[in-house]
Amino acid sequence: MIKTIKLAFLGLISMAFVGSAYADLTFVSWGGAYTASQQKAYVDTWSKGSGVTVENYNGGLGEIKAQVEANNVTWDVVDVLPDQAITGCDEGLFLKVDQSHFINDMVVKPVSECISPQIFWSYVAFYDPAAFPGKKPKTIKDFFDVKKFPGKRGIHTWANALIEMALVADGVKPSKVYDVMSSDGGIDRAFKKLDTIKDHVVFWSAGSKPLELVSSGEVVMSLAYNGRIGAAILQEGKSFNYIWDGQVLEQEYLVVVKGTKNEAEAREFVKHASTAESLALQAKYIPYGPMRSSSIDIIKKGEPFFNTGVDVLPHMPNTPKRLRRSVIADPFWWADNGAEVSERFGVWKGN
Amino acid sequence: MSSETISGPILTSDGIPLKVSLRKAEKRNKIRAFLLVLPLLAFILITFIIPIGDMLSRSVDDRYINTVFPKTFEVFKKWDKQDLPPEEVYETMFFEINAAKGYKIGKSSTRMNYSKSGWKSLIKKSQRKFKRIKEGPYKEQMIEIDKRWGDPLYWKALGEMVDPTTMGYYLNAVDLKYDSNKEIIAQPENRRIYNHTWIKTFKVSLLVTLFTLMLGYPIAYLLATLPLKYSNLLMICVLLPFWTSLLVRTVAWMIILQQNGVFNNLMVIAGLIADENRWKLMYNETGTIIVMTQILLPFMVLPLYSVMKTISPSYMKAALNLGASPLHAFWKVYMPNSLPGISAGGLLVFIIAIGYFITPELVGGKDGQMIGNWIAYHLKTTLNWGLCAALGSILLAVMLVFYWVYNKIIGVENIKLG
């Protein structure tokens, strides 16, 4: 009895999260220009089955866990970050999918058996060239050097990527960052480096904020999601410069939620959404980097590929040259240490 | 009651004792009354009592992991906690990891990771590589697969999970933890975040309550005493922001208060502050307090107004006629009469403020985050719902304590919404 009531209650919660149930396939993503690009690249090109309803969420597994526990799954396909993909797959929130059609075409190894590839995006530093009339910052080291380049820096309110960037700025090779982070004193070293900019920092938590901070002169440079900067340059004609050096690449995946009422259709949909063509098509609308090597070839051949008729590759985080000085975020490290480092980061911010 | 003093049963016209007949009628009435409140009762039960009960039980529940490693924990209890556990513990661990079907092990490793970061990947890797181990002894082979199996810290962290209930989440919520012998010790200094955040949460909530009272009291007074045509206009001014989206108001404050924002620009143009010494009013605790004060102001003004509306103007006139100074008359006559409104508004604002998280998330920046932000973080990112439940339960308990203190000092009967 108690159990049924509990389930009913969890059902209520999940309903509160979702609003109402749909008969269509429900695809949940992050909203904004990113979801718009997904809409054009593979929702509009999806002809099988019934329609696809696109909804937005703010990340995290809270809603999905509530739906699965209450056995009332209304989200069929969700766009997730890799650490969520790992945790969700481990905890049985997602279904394992057929990976044979892309497994040999990936830029990096897929993090779990539940995922279908989407894009690379990155945390990257940028600035308005007008703020630096003389010498311009070129490396992540410059971002952390307030003597050479005085002025405020915009950084996000959570620890991911900041730890990695601090270490690269402190002289660690990008390929060795996670070795240092796993060694004794590695995290201390990162926090020590972060201390050097602490008094010059403005925090942001919404992705649109850093652009505004830099445009308004509130900060002289900021970290941001590369796609946001790209969209501002390509679509709004802003003049921003990237500092690709020391960027931290994150991956984005699609998963099918366990207990979905449209399982067969959902599986077909993620397959369709992760073909080389679909992923390439997405880059027409947003400068994130596809995770399949063959998609990049399609884009290269198709340049100028962006919908406004300009080259899109200069705005992509995962060109071979940029990858040499980039860190690819390790979701396994963060799945292990995320909570601990976040608490430390909270202490660091507050003091 | 009085019928009991008379000896011998009194009978009704159809021969049934009056007492019985009355009881019957009363019972029927009671059932009818109960049926009337039943929907509400069911509603409260489903949306209020059960969720809270569920939260309380989640905050101490540790049964799941005990169903995955029952034997390991049994032999683990016999270990003297010196150096590394004996072969027996390794052996049961090996078999129970192998035996755990499907998602069980993933869920357990998430739980284990809460008490020692690293368990998650250790279990994942081991699960894959355990296939290589064909026969015992297991200890050396497991350490060979991953040297963390030879790290006593990992084993000792298991100590807090061996019972089906745990206080670990509550300890975590106040910056304490169990050591390997299940003694309570403080968290390492660089992870002590919650006590600090608790204090900040109460400080911000109290300040916001105080500021809304200081700002809201005169507004409510004007609303209650001005002629209708002015007070209606003023009421719209109070309600309009109340009807505006929370996010819109928060973002508007960002534009006004940031260092290159409207307010600082005006101050610099007016020559009141130097360009390089602009005030830091946003993305910190100050910003959180300012924005929350504005957002919660209507919750103070409205109860105050509805109470003040009932205070007859003749009280003040009488006090003044009897020779009290205006200040004295206000303090001795008007203020005590408006106290129920202050209480209601104060409690309302404080309760809302203490669990606030959207505004602190957006404008809190470096030191304006409150406990709600940590609950949201663990709810969504780490999936540590046990810790969320512990934090939530503490919040609830603190609220009840505040309510109790308030009742002792002022009295609940003094809360009035009009």
List the topology elements:
The complex is a heterodimer of chains A (351) and B (418).
Chain A (H helix, E strand, L loop, with lengths): L1 H17 L6 E5 L2 H12 L8 E5 L5 H8 L7 E4 L1 H9 L25 E12 L12 H4 L9 E4 L5 H8 L7 H6 L3 H10 L5 E4 L4 H7 L5 E5 H11 L4 E16 L6 H11 L2 H7 L6 E2 L2 H10 L17 H4 L3 E2 L2 H20 L1
Helix pairs in contact in A: 1-3, 2-12, 4-15, 6-8, 12-13
Chain B lengths: L17 H41 L4 H6 L1 H9 L8 H13 L4 H12 L3 H11 L8 H8 L6 H6 L10 H6 L2 E3 L5 E3 L7 H32 L2 H16 L2 H12 L4 H8 L15 H24 L4 H9 L4 H29 L3 H6 L7 H12 L2 H25 L9
Antiparallel strand pairs in B: 1-2
Account of the protein in words:
The complex is a heterodimer of chains A (351) and B (418). Chain A has two domains: 2-120 and 251-318, Periplasmic binding protein-like II (D-Maltodextrin-Binding Protein, domain 2, 3-Layer(aba) Sandwich), CATH 3.40.190.10; 123-249 and 323-350, Periplasmic binding protein-like II (D-Maltodextrin-Binding Protein, domain 2, 3-Layer(aba) Sandwich), CATH 3.40.190. In chain A, 41% of the residues lie in helices and 17% in strands. In chain A, strand 1, helix 2 and strand 2 form a beta-alpha-beta unit. Chain A contains 15 helices and ten strands. In chain A, strands 1, 2, 3, 4, 5, 6, 7, 8, 9 and 10 form a ten-stranded mixed sheet that branches. Chain A is of the alpha/beta class and 351 residues long. Chain B has 418 residues and is an all-alpha fold. Chain B folds into three domains: 19-58, no CATH class; 63-191, no CATH class; 194-414, MetI-like fold, CATH 1.10.3720. Chain B is built from 19 helices and two strands. Chain B has helices at 18-58, 63-68, 70-78, 87-99, 104-115, 119-129, 138-145, 152-157, 168-173, 194-225, 228-243, 246-257, 262-269, 285-308, 313-321, 326-354, 358-363, 371-382, 385-409, and strands at 176-178, 184-186. In chain B, helix 1 (18-58) crosses helix 19 (385-409), helix 5 packs antiparallel against helix 6 and helix 14 (285-308) crosses helix 16 (326-354). Chain B is flat and about 100 Å long. The relative contact order of chain B is 0.08. The mean pLDDT of chain B is 88. At the A-B interface, helix 1, helix 4, strand 6 and helix 15 of A face helix 1, helix 5, helix 6, helix 10 and helix 18 of B.
